[in-house]
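re: the backbone from monday

yeah here it is again, tokenized this time
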């Protein structure tokens, strides 16, 4: 699809297994792993050119009626303790997902995979990086504006891998994986330098970073926020990092993908005192 700057788009998405799992007795050995983490798209945005920033305002996420989860040997942080694959189907209704033993978990619908085309080689939709991708960041939800780099003409935005709920870390290697629809408004920001990916919610600004090692992802998210503050305000690196050390929060998004992802949170109440407005 080709859209104009400022247009609204509705993405229909499969779950992360491309809807292969219909019931808990779906054979694990029958899953086609080449179809994992599909992203709907790409969308070509007229006028978007390399060096621009794509602002994606997430207006609405509509979920399907059931989610699925899976564990298997070698997957997630406890993969060495799991002896056989298991598949769970999670009913989703009334604002909750119901887990085994009747545990009801509040929904927090969010987008696991969202990104623009990378600048060089192709990147699997299972991998997060500087273009966005499989960040599995639970603050990428309704009301959030995500800022992504434009690396190629048209940006080529795609998204998928919705979760009905997911905790920070995504430690089992999946959230409540679910199909659905996402409505976004897409805008092109020109002459705006940002350490993308970034995100803005009602009360917080975030830098998001991914790297092979969790330490490196954490350091990069923090460094990006320091450079953003310094660039926007003229504060020295000393003062910017001191500010973050007392007023910001370093948070983990996920630790189970080929690259780990962290985010750094800066309250808008602090940013506005410095005159920072996105």
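seq for it, each position gets an aa:
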């Amino acid at each position: 699809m080709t859209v104009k700057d400022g247009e609204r788009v509705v993405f229909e998405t499969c779950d992360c297994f491309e809807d292969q799992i219909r019931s808990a007795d779906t054979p694990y050995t029958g899953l086609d792993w080449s179809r994992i983490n599909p992203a709907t798209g790409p969308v070509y945005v007229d006028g978007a050119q390399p060096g621009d920033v794509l602002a994606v305002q997430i207006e609405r996420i509509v979920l399907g009626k059931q989610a699925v989860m899976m564990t298997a040997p070698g997957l997630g942080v406890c993969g060495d303790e799991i002896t056989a694959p298991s598949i769970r189907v999670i009913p989703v209704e009334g604002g909750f997902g119901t887990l085994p033993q009747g545990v009801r978990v509040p929904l927090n619908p969010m987008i696991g995979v969202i990104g623009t085309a990378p600048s060089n080689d192709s990147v699997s939709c299972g991998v997060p990086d500087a273009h966005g991708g499989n960040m599995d960041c639970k603050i990428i939800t309704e009301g959030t504006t995500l800022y992504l780099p434009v690396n190629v003409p048209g940006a080529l935005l795609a998204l998928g891998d919705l979760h009905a709920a997911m905790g920070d870390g995504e430690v089992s290697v999946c959230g409540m994986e679910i199909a659905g629809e996402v409505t976004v408004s897409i805008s092109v920001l020109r002459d705006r330098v940002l350490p993308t990916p970034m995100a803005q919610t009602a009360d917080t600004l975030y830098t998001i970073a991914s790297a092979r090692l969790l330490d490196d992802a954490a350091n990069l998210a923090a460094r990006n926020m320091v450079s953003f503050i310094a660039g926007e305000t003229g504060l020295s690196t000393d003062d910017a990092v001191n500010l973050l050390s007392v007023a910001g929060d370093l948070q983990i998004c996920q630790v189970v993908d080929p690259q780990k992802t962290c985010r750094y949170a800066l309250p808008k109440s602090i940013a506005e005192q410095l005159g920072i407005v996105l």
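Residues 2-189 form a domain with the Jelly Rolls fold (CATH 2.60.120.580). The chain has two domains: 2-189, 198-273.
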